[in-house]
Protein backbone atom coordinates (compact mmCIF):
# COMPACT_ATOMS: atom_id res chain seq x y z
CA UNK A 1 0.00 0.00 0.00
CA UNK A 2 2.82 2.39 0.83
CA UNK A 3 4.46 1.73 -2.55
CA UNK A 4 1.18 2.16 -4.44
CA UNK A 5 0.44 5.46 -2.68
CA UNK A 6 3.97 6.73 -3.45
CA UNK A 7 3.53 5.84 -7.13
CA UNK A 8 0.22 7.73 -7.16
CA UNK A 9 1.95 10.72 -5.59
CA UNK A 10 4.76 10.72 -8.18
CA UNK A 11 2.19 10.30 -10.98
CA UNK A 12 0.20 13.25 -9.65
CA UNK A 13 3.20 15.55 -9.40
CA UNK A 14 4.38 14.53 -12.88
CA UNK A 15 0.98 15.49 -14.29
CA UNK A 16 1.20 18.88 -12.58
CA UNK A 17 4.69 19.44 -14.02
CA UNK A 18 4.05 18.54 -17.66
CA UNK A 19 0.35 19.21 -18.32
CA UNK A 20 -1.22 22.38 -19.65
CA UNK A 21 -4.89 21.49 -19.08
CA UNK A 22 -6.90 22.21 -15.96
CA UNK A 23 -8.48 18.73 -15.85
CA UNK A 24 -5.09 16.99 -15.80
CA UNK A 25 -3.91 19.30 -13.03
CA UNK A 26 -7.03 18.40 -11.02
CA UNK A 27 -6.33 14.69 -11.56
CA UNK A 28 -2.74 15.27 -10.48
CA UNK A 29 -3.82 17.07 -7.32
CA UNK A 30 -6.22 14.20 -6.57
CA UNK A 31 -3.44 11.62 -6.92
CA UNK A 32 -1.17 13.63 -4.65
CA UNK A 33 -4.04 13.93 -2.17
CA UNK A 34 -4.41 10.14 -2.00
CA UNK A 35 -0.69 9.80 -1.30
CA UNK A 36 -0.76 12.55 1.32
CA UNK A 37 -3.75 11.04 3.13
CA UNK A 38 -2.12 7.61 3.23
CA UNK A 39 1.23 8.99 4.37
CA UNK A 40 -0.40 10.96 7.19
CA UNK A 41 -2.27 7.91 8.51
CA UNK A 42 0.70 5.59 7.99
CA UNK A 43 3.11 7.79 9.93
CA UNK A 44 0.76 8.17 12.92
CA UNK A 45 0.14 4.42 13.11
CA UNK A 46 3.83 3.60 12.68
CA UNK A 47 4.85 5.98 15.48
CA UNK A 48 2.15 4.52 17.73
CA UNK A 49 3.35 0.97 17.06
CA UNK A 50 7.14 1.36 17.23
CA UNK A 51 7.40 3.63 20.27
CA UNK A 52 7.17 2.99 23.96
CA UNK A 53 4.70 5.02 26.01
CA UNK A 54 7.55 7.10 27.44
CA UNK A 55 8.76 8.05 23.93
CA UNK A 56 5.42 8.79 22.32
CA UNK A 57 5.10 12.40 23.47
CA UNK A 58 8.40 13.57 22.06
CA UNK A 59 8.06 11.65 18.78
CA UNK A 60 4.46 12.63 18.12
CA UNK A 61 5.32 16.23 18.98
CA UNK A 62 8.29 15.95 16.64
CA UNK A 63 5.97 14.78 13.87
CA UNK A 64 3.96 17.98 14.27
CA UNK A 65 7.19 20.00 14.33
CA UNK A 66 8.41 18.64 10.99
CA UNK A 67 5.02 19.29 9.41
CA UNK A 68 5.55 22.94 10.32
CA UNK A 69 9.05 22.88 8.87
CA UNK A 70 7.49 21.63 5.63
CA UNK A 71 4.96 24.46 5.70
CA UNK A 72 7.75 26.98 6.10
CA UNK A 73 9.72 25.52 3.18
CA UNK A 74 6.59 25.57 1.01
CA UNK A 75 5.75 29.20 1.85
CA UNK A 76 9.35 30.29 1.42
CA UNK A 77 9.87 28.45 -1.87
CA UNK A 78 6.54 29.74 -3.19
CA UNK A 79 7.85 33.31 -3.18
CA UNK A 80 10.32 32.57 -5.98
CA UNK A 81 9.42 29.20 -7.49
CA UNK A 82 6.49 28.55 -9.86
CA UNK A 83 4.11 25.78 -8.85
CA UNK A 84 5.68 23.31 -11.31
CA UNK A 85 9.03 23.51 -9.53
CA UNK A 86 7.23 23.04 -6.23
CA UNK A 87 5.86 19.83 -7.73
CA UNK A 88 9.45 18.72 -8.44
CA UNK A 89 10.22 19.22 -4.74
CA UNK A 90 7.16 17.11 -4.00
CA UNK A 91 8.55 14.22 -6.07
CA UNK A 92 11.85 14.41 -4.18
CA UNK A 93 9.95 14.26 -0.89
CA UNK A 94 7.96 11.19 -1.99
CA UNK A 95 11.11 9.37 -3.10
CA UNK A 96 12.70 10.07 0.28
CA UNK A 97 9.57 8.85 2.07
CA UNK A 98 9.52 5.63 0.01
CA UNK A 99 13.23 5.03 0.70
CA UNK A 100 12.75 5.44 4.45
CA UNK A 101 9.82 3.00 4.38
CA UNK A 102 12.00 0.40 2.68
CA UNK A 103 14.99 0.64 5.04
CA UNK A 104 12.95 0.82 8.25
CA UNK A 105 11.69 -2.43 9.79
CA UNK A 106 8.06 -3.39 10.17
CA UNK A 107 6.61 -2.45 13.53
CA UNK A 108 6.94 -5.04 16.32
CA UNK A 109 3.15 -4.89 16.70
CA UNK A 110 2.72 -6.08 13.12
CA UNK A 111 5.20 -8.93 13.63
CA UNK A 112 3.38 -10.04 16.79
CA UNK A 113 0.09 -10.03 14.90
CA UNK A 114 1.69 -12.33 12.31
CA UNK A 115 3.03 -14.63 15.09
CA UNK A 116 6.63 -13.72 14.19
CA UNK A 117 7.88 -13.17 17.72
CA UNK A 118 11.56 -13.59 16.79
CA UNK A 119 11.38 -10.78 14.23
CA UNK A 120 9.41 -8.65 16.68
CA UNK A 121 12.17 -9.16 19.25
CA UNK A 122 14.94 -8.26 16.80
CA UNK A 123 13.01 -5.13 15.76
CA UNK A 124 12.58 -4.03 19.38
CA UNK A 125 16.30 -4.52 20.02
CA UNK A 126 17.10 -2.58 16.84
CA UNK A 127 14.81 0.30 17.87
CA UNK A 128 15.61 0.48 21.58
CA UNK A 129 19.09 -1.01 22.03
CA UNK A 130 20.54 -4.39 23.00
CA UNK A 131 19.84 -3.87 26.73
CA UNK A 132 16.11 -3.51 26.18
CA UNK A 133 13.81 -6.14 27.75
CA UNK A 134 12.19 -7.20 24.48
CA UNK A 135 10.44 -10.30 25.86
CA UNK A 136 8.46 -8.29 28.42
CA UNK A 137 7.48 -5.73 25.79
CA UNK A 138 6.30 -8.49 23.43
CA UNK A 139 4.03 -9.84 26.16
CA UNK A 140 2.59 -6.33 26.62
CA UNK A 141 2.00 -6.06 22.88
CA UNK A 142 0.25 -9.43 22.85
CA UNK A 143 -2.02 -8.26 25.65
CA UNK A 144 -3.00 -5.18 23.66
CA UNK A 145 -3.37 -6.82 20.25
CA UNK A 146 -4.62 -10.30 21.13
CA UNK A 147 -7.87 -9.77 19.26
CA UNK A 148 -6.69 -7.21 16.70
CA UNK A 149 -6.50 -9.61 13.73
CA UNK A 150 -10.03 -8.99 12.54
CA UNK A 151 -11.62 -8.47 9.15
CA UNK A 152 -12.87 -5.17 7.76
CA UNK A 153 -16.45 -6.40 8.14
CA UNK A 154 -15.82 -7.04 11.82
CA UNK A 155 -14.27 -3.59 12.16
CA UNK A 156 -17.33 -1.91 10.69
CA UNK A 157 -19.66 -4.01 12.84
CA UNK A 158 -17.62 -3.00 15.89
CA UNK A 159 -18.56 0.63 15.20
CA UNK A 160 -21.97 -0.22 16.66
CA UNK A 161 -20.21 -0.43 20.02
CA UNK A 162 -20.48 3.03 21.61
CA UNK A 163 -17.09 2.62 23.34
CA UNK A 164 -15.45 2.25 19.94
CA UNK A 165 -17.60 4.81 18.14
CA UNK A 166 -17.48 7.61 20.74
CA UNK A 167 -13.78 8.61 20.42
CA UNK A 168 -13.99 8.36 16.63
CA UNK A 169 -16.99 10.73 16.53
CA UNK A 170 -15.32 13.20 18.88
CA UNK A 171 -12.06 13.22 16.92
CA UNK A 172 -13.94 13.55 13.61
CA UNK A 173 -15.88 16.58 14.84
CA UNK A 174 -12.67 18.10 16.20
CA UNK A 175 -11.04 17.58 12.81
CA UNK A 176 -13.90 19.51 11.17
CA UNK A 177 -13.57 22.38 13.65
CA UNK A 178 -9.80 22.40 13.23
CA UNK A 179 -10.08 22.77 9.46
CA UNK A 180 -12.87 25.36 9.67
CA UNK A 181 -10.77 27.53 11.97
CA UNK A 182 -7.44 26.57 10.50
CA UNK A 183 -4.43 28.42 9.22
CA UNK A 184 -5.90 28.95 5.75
CA UNK A 185 -8.55 31.22 7.29
CA UNK A 186 -6.05 33.29 9.27
CA UNK A 187 -3.63 33.66 6.35
CA UNK A 188 -6.51 34.60 4.02
CA UNK A 189 -7.77 37.20 6.51
CA UNK A 190 -4.35 38.82 6.89
CA UNK A 191 -3.70 38.73 3.14
CA UNK A 192 -7.08 40.36 2.48
CA UNK A 193 -6.18 43.26 4.78
CA UNK A 194 -2.64 43.66 3.48
CA UNK A 195 -3.74 43.67 -0.15
CA UNK A 196 -6.29 46.40 0.55
CA UNK A 197 -3.77 48.54 2.41
CA UNK A 198 -0.89 47.82 0.02
CA UNK A 199 1.50 48.14 2.96
CA UNK A 200 3.31 44.80 2.69
CA UNK A 201 3.66 42.01 0.16
CA UNK A 202 1.22 39.29 1.34
CA UNK A 203 3.66 36.57 0.24
CA UNK A 204 6.37 37.96 2.49
CA UNK A 205 3.90 38.52 5.32
CA UNK A 206 2.70 34.91 5.06
CA UNK A 207 6.19 33.73 6.11
CA UNK A 208 5.42 34.96 9.61
CA UNK A 209 2.86 32.21 9.94
CA UNK A 210 5.05 29.09 9.44
CA UNK A 211 7.91 30.64 11.43
CA UNK A 212 5.74 31.04 14.51
CA UNK A 213 4.10 27.67 13.89
CA UNK A 214 7.57 26.17 14.27
CA UNK A 215 8.26 28.18 17.43
CA UNK A 216 4.96 27.03 18.93
CA UNK A 217 5.69 23.39 18.10
CA UNK A 218 9.16 23.64 19.66
CA UNK A 219 7.79 25.13 22.88
CA UNK A 220 5.15 22.40 22.99
CA UNK A 221 7.77 19.64 22.68
CA UNK A 222 9.98 21.20 25.35
CA UNK A 223 7.31 21.52 28.03
CA UNK A 224 4.97 18.63 27.13
CA UNK A 225 6.57 16.26 29.63
CA UNK A 226 6.21 18.69 32.53
CA UNK A 227 2.55 19.77 32.35
CA UNK A 228 -0.85 18.14 32.11
CA UNK A 229 -2.02 18.12 28.52
CA UNK A 230 -5.43 19.65 29.20
CA UNK A 231 -3.78 22.67 30.86
CA UNK A 232 -1.44 23.04 27.90
CA UNK A 233 -4.44 23.07 25.57
CA UNK A 234 -6.22 25.65 27.73
CA UNK A 235 -3.08 27.83 27.51
CA UNK A 236 -3.03 27.51 23.72
CA UNK A 237 -6.72 28.43 23.61
CA UNK A 238 -6.09 31.57 25.69
CA UNK A 239 -3.42 32.68 23.20
CA UNK A 240 -5.87 32.13 20.35
CA UNK A 241 -8.59 34.07 22.19
CA UNK A 242 -6.24 37.03 22.64
CA UNK A 243 -5.33 37.02 18.95
CA UNK A 244 -8.99 36.77 17.89
CA UNK A 245 -10.15 39.59 20.16
CA UNK A 246 -7.29 41.78 19.00
CA UNK A 247 -8.07 40.97 15.37
CA UNK A 248 -11.73 41.87 15.91
CA UNK A 249 -10.73 45.24 17.36
CA UNK A 250 -8.38 45.76 14.44
CA UNK A 251 -11.11 44.97 11.94
CA UNK A 252 -13.52 47.47 13.50
CA UNK A 253 -10.85 50.20 13.65
CA UNK A 254 -9.46 49.70 10.17
CA UNK A 255 -12.77 49.17 8.35
CA UNK A 256 -13.07 52.90 7.72
CA UNK A 257 -9.53 53.16 6.33
CA UNK A 258 -9.29 50.18 3.97
CA UNK A 259 -9.61 52.53 1.00
CA UNK A 260 -6.95 54.93 2.16
CA UNK A 261 -6.42 58.43 0.93
CA UNK A 262 -3.33 60.56 1.51
CA UNK A 263 -4.56 61.91 4.83
CA UNK A 264 -4.79 58.46 6.40
CA UNK A 265 -1.91 56.71 4.62
CA UNK A 266 0.42 56.79 7.65
CA UNK A 267 -2.33 55.40 9.90
CA UNK A 268 -2.97 52.58 7.43
CA UNK A 269 0.71 51.79 7.20
CA UNK A 270 0.89 51.56 11.00
CA UNK A 271 -2.24 49.40 11.22
CA UNK A 272 -0.80 46.98 8.67
CA UNK A 273 1.55 45.53 11.27
CA UNK A 274 -1.33 44.76 13.61
CA UNK A 275 -2.58 41.73 11.62
CA UNK A 276 1.01 40.55 11.25
CA UNK A 277 1.56 40.55 15.01
CA UNK A 278 -1.78 38.80 15.48
CA UNK A 279 -0.86 36.28 12.81
CA UNK A 280 2.34 35.52 14.72
CA UNK A 281 0.47 35.09 18.01
CA UNK A 282 -2.19 32.93 16.40
CA UNK A 283 0.40 30.80 14.60
CA UNK A 284 2.32 30.26 17.83
CA UNK A 285 -0.81 29.04 19.63
CA UNK A 286 -1.86 26.92 16.64
CA UNK A 287 1.54 25.23 16.38
CA UNK A 288 1.56 24.75 20.14
CA UNK A 289 -1.95 23.29 20.19
CA UNK A 290 -1.43 20.99 17.25
CA UNK A 291 1.66 19.50 18.80
CA UNK A 292 -0.80 18.26 21.43
CA UNK A 293 -3.33 17.11 18.84
CA UNK A 294 -0.81 14.92 17.06
CA UNK A 295 0.00 13.37 20.40
CA UNK A 296 -3.67 12.63 21.08
CA UNK A 297 -4.17 11.00 17.68
CA UNK A 298 -1.06 8.89 18.17
CA UNK A 299 -1.40 8.34 21.91
CA UNK A 300 -5.03 7.19 21.80
CA UNK A 301 -4.23 3.99 19.94
CA UNK A 302 -7.20 2.07 18.58
CA UNK A 303 -5.55 -1.35 18.83
CA UNK A 304 -8.38 -3.12 17.03
CA UNK A 305 -9.53 -0.49 14.59
CA UNK A 306 -6.70 2.04 14.29
CA UNK A 307 -6.47 2.26 10.49
CA UNK A 308 -10.24 2.55 10.10
CA UNK A 309 -10.40 5.09 12.93
CA UNK A 310 -7.66 7.35 11.52
CA UNK A 311 -9.26 7.10 8.08
CA UNK A 312 -12.72 8.14 9.28
CA UNK A 313 -11.30 11.03 11.29
CA UNK A 314 -9.18 12.34 8.41
CA UNK A 315 -11.70 11.93 5.59
CA UNK A 316 -14.72 13.22 7.52
CA UNK A 317 -12.83 16.14 9.01
CA UNK A 318 -11.20 17.35 5.81
CA UNK A 319 -13.98 16.79 3.28
CA UNK A 320 -16.73 18.23 5.48
CA UNK A 321 -14.79 21.34 6.43
CA UNK A 322 -13.54 22.02 2.89
CA UNK A 323 -17.08 21.69 1.54
CA UNK A 324 -18.40 24.16 4.13
CA UNK A 325 -15.54 26.61 3.51
CA UNK A 326 -15.84 26.63 -0.28
CA UNK A 327 -19.65 26.78 -0.33
CA UNK A 328 -19.80 29.65 2.15
CA UNK A 329 -16.95 31.57 0.53
CA UNK A 330 -18.70 31.21 -2.82
CA UNK A 331 -22.06 32.37 -1.44
CA UNK A 332 -20.72 35.08 0.88
CA UNK A 333 -17.51 36.17 -0.82
CA UNK A 334 -18.53 39.83 -0.84
CA UNK A 335 -18.12 40.17 2.94
CA UNK A 336 -14.51 39.04 2.63
CA UNK A 337 -12.32 39.44 5.67
CA UNK A 338 -15.10 39.59 8.26
CA UNK A 339 -16.42 36.19 7.19
CA UNK A 340 -12.90 34.80 7.50
CA UNK A 341 -12.80 36.16 11.03
CA UNK A 342 -16.08 34.35 11.77
CA UNK A 343 -14.46 31.15 10.50
CA UNK A 344 -11.67 31.60 13.02
CA UNK A 345 -14.16 31.49 15.88
CA UNK A 346 -14.52 27.75 15.29
CA UNK A 347 -11.23 27.38 17.14
CA UNK A 348 -13.06 28.10 20.40
CA UNK A 349 -15.37 25.12 19.85
CA UNK A 350 -12.36 23.05 18.87
CA UNK A 351 -10.54 23.92 22.10
CA UNK A 352 -13.58 23.04 24.23
CA UNK A 353 -14.00 19.70 22.48
CA UNK A 354 -10.31 18.93 22.75
CA UNK A 355 -10.29 19.52 26.51
CA UNK A 356 -13.39 17.31 26.82
CA UNK A 357 -11.55 14.60 24.89
CA UNK A 358 -8.64 14.56 27.31
CA UNK A 359 -10.88 14.56 30.37
CA UNK A 360 -13.21 11.76 29.25
CA UNK A 361 -11.17 9.39 27.05
Write the SSE topology.
Elements: H1 2-18, H2 22-50, H3 53-80, H4 83-103, H5 108-113, H6 117-128, H7 134-145, H8 152-158, H9 162-180, H10 183-197, H11 202-205, H12 208-223, H13 229-254, H14 265-271, H15 273-299, H16 306-331, H17 336-344, H18 346-360
Helix pairs in contact: 1-2, 1-4, 2-15, 2-16, 3-12, 3-15, 6-7, 9-16, 9-18, 10-15, 10-17, 12-15, 13-15, 13-17, 13-18
- What is the CATH class designation of the domain at 154-361? Mainly Alpha
How many E-type strands?
Answer: 0
Order of helices and strands: HHHHHHHHHHHHHHHHHH
| Share of helical residues | over 70%
**What would CATH call the homologous superfamily of the domain at 154-361?**
MFS general substrate transporter like domains
* SS-based class: mainly alpha
Low-confidence stretches: 333-337
Beta-strand content estimate = under 5%
The CATH architecture of the domain at 154-361 is Up-down Bundle
Number of helices: 18
Short synopsis of the structure:
The protein is globular, with a radius of gyration of 22 Å.
Please tell me about this protein's structure.
With 361 residues, the chain is mainly alpha-helical. The chain has a domain at 154-361: MFS general substrate transporter like domains (Growth Hormone, Chain: A), CATH 1.20.1250. Helices cover 82% and strands 0% of the residues. The chain has 18 helices and no strands. Helix 2 runs antiparallel to helix 16 (306-331), helix 9 packs parallel to helix 16 (306-331) and helix 10 (183-197) packs antiparallel against helix 17. The model is unreliable at 333-337 (pLDDT under 50). The chain crosses the membrane at residues 12-38, 58-77, 83-103, 164-181, 207-224, 231-253, 273-295, 307-332, 338-359. One of its GO terms (cellular component) is membrane. This is Solute carrier family 2, facilitated glucose transporter member 8. It is found in: Membrane.
Amino acid sequence: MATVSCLLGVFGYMLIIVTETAMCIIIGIGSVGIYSAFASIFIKIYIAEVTLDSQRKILSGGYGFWIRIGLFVAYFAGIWLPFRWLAVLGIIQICLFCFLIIINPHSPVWYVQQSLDDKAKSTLLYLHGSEFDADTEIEKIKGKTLSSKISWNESFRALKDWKVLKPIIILSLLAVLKELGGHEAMVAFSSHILENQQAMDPKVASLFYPIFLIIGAIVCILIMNYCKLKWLMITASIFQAISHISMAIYYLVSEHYLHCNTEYSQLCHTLAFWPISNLALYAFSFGFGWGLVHYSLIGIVFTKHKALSFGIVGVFGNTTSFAVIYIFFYLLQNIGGFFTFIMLSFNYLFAIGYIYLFINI
